[in-house]
């Protein structure tokens, strides 16, 4: 379970071993309180039936006392057993490599250079270097979006694709490779766009991408009313709600929205932002505590996917 996306170059990590319930509650708590652009927190079982490990990554030196005081009501004296460690860039690359486990969705395989042996003859591969793993989101959000995209291609082939909040660029790369069409992709963070551009070059698809730096669709390449028949937005629940009118405006009349970056509990709030714009849930994918939503104009009967 992970809240937020890793900062590109975190400087510190907080680690605490505890029970599953406490780890999950702390993950949600830290994820809600801290800026997701500068902090990410993950929790996972260390071994079958064993204790859970909480890891919180920070882009700047954290207030250790404040964080211990924050988790103390949940874990008591265990709060003082948690350790804060500085991270060198070498440490972070090693951590990124460990986290860059292959993600498969149909023929699409996202992997690091250290997992090239996982490729199959007919795979459509996207290779991401650990040093360029900016917010890769190698968890339920990315895989959910990729599964949704693969299923969408069984019904239609989009011609105009937009990826809002592209991060490393994985979703845009998948669309460009599978559709052989130009994809517009943007992010509010210039570093994310720089990384996406470099990853595109490494994957040999830079000629298929138009990248921009701007919030949402506030760029002439993206702000094209009724133009895009597929729009990805794998960000967080709050910006998804805020962007509802903008994404609805740039999508074509028969277009599709694939939305993610939200926990299962956030789904009703996101749906309530899009339904007044004329959009309704068609499919839903739930993976690792995260949800990906496929939205269409008009009514639909939602079909969960797991």
UniProtKB/TrEMBL annotation:
Example of a GO cellular component annotation carried by this entry: cytoplasm
The organism's superkingdom is given as Bacteria
Q: Which UniProt keywords apply?
A: Cytoplasm, Methyltransferase, Ribonucleoprotein, Ribosomal protein, S-adenosyl-L-methionine, Transferase
Gene that this polypeptide is encoded by? prmA
Q: Which GO terms describe its molecular function?
A: protein-lysine N-methyltransferase activity
> Which residues does S-adenosyl-L-methionine bind?
142, 165, 187, 234
Quickly give the catalysed reaction: L-lysyl-[protein] + 3 S-adenosyl-L-methionine = N(6),N(6),N(6)-trimethyl-L-lysyl-[protein] + 3 S-adenosyl-L-homocysteine + 3 H(+)
Query: Where does the protein end up?
Result: Cytoplasm
Instruction: Identify the InterPro entries for this entry.
Output: Ribosomal_L11_MeTrfase_PrmA (IPR050078), Ribosomal_PrmA_MeTrfase (IPR004498), SAM-dependent_MTases_sf (IPR029063)
What's one GO BP annotation on this UniProt entry?
Answer: methylation
Q: What sort of enzyme, by top EC class, is this?
A: transferase
Q: Which family does it belong to?
A: Belongs to the methyltransferase superfamily. PrmA family.
Q: What does this protein do?
A: Methylates ribosomal protein L11.
Q: What is its EC number?
A: 2.1.1.-
Q: What is this protein called?
A: Ribosomal protein L11 methyltransferase
């Amino acid at each position: 379970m992970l809240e937020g996306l890793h900062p590109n170059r975190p400087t510190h990590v907080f680690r605490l071993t505890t029970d599953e319930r406490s780890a999950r509650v702390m993950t949600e708590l830290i994820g809600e309180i801290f800026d997701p652009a500068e902090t990410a927190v993950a929790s996972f079982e260390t071994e079958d039936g064993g204790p859970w490990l909480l890891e919180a990554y920070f882009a700047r030196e954290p207030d250790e006392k404040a964080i211990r005081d924050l988790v103390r009501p949940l874990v008591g004296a265990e709060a003082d057993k948690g350790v804060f460690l500085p991270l060198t860039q070498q440490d972070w690359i090693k951590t990124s490599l460990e986290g860059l486990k292959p993600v498969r969705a149909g023929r699409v395989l996202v992997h690091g250079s250290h997992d090239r042996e996982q490729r199959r003859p007919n795979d459509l591969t996207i290779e991401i270097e650990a040093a360029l793993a900016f917010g890769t989101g190698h968890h339920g959000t990315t895989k959910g979006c990729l599964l949704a995209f693969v299923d969408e291609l069984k019904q239609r082939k989009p011609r105009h694709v937009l990826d809002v909040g592209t991060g490393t660029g994985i979703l845009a790369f998948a669309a460009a490779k599978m559709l052989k069409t130009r994809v517009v992709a943007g992010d509010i963070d210039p570093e994310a766009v720089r990384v996406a551009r470099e990853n595109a070059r490494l994957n040999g698809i830079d000629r298929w991408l138009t990248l921009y730096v701007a919030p949402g669709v506030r760029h002439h390449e993206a702000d094209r009313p009724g133009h895009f028949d597929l729009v990805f937005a794998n960000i967080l629940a709050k910006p998804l709600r805020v962007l509802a009118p903008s994404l609805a405006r740039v999508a074509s009349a028969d277009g599709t929205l694939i939305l993610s970056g939200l926990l299962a509990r956030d789904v009703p709030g996101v749906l309530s932002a899009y339904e007044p714009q004329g959009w309704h849930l068609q499919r839903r994918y739930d993976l690792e505590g995260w949800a990906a939503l496929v939205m269409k104009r008009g009514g639909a009967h939602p079909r969960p996917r797991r």
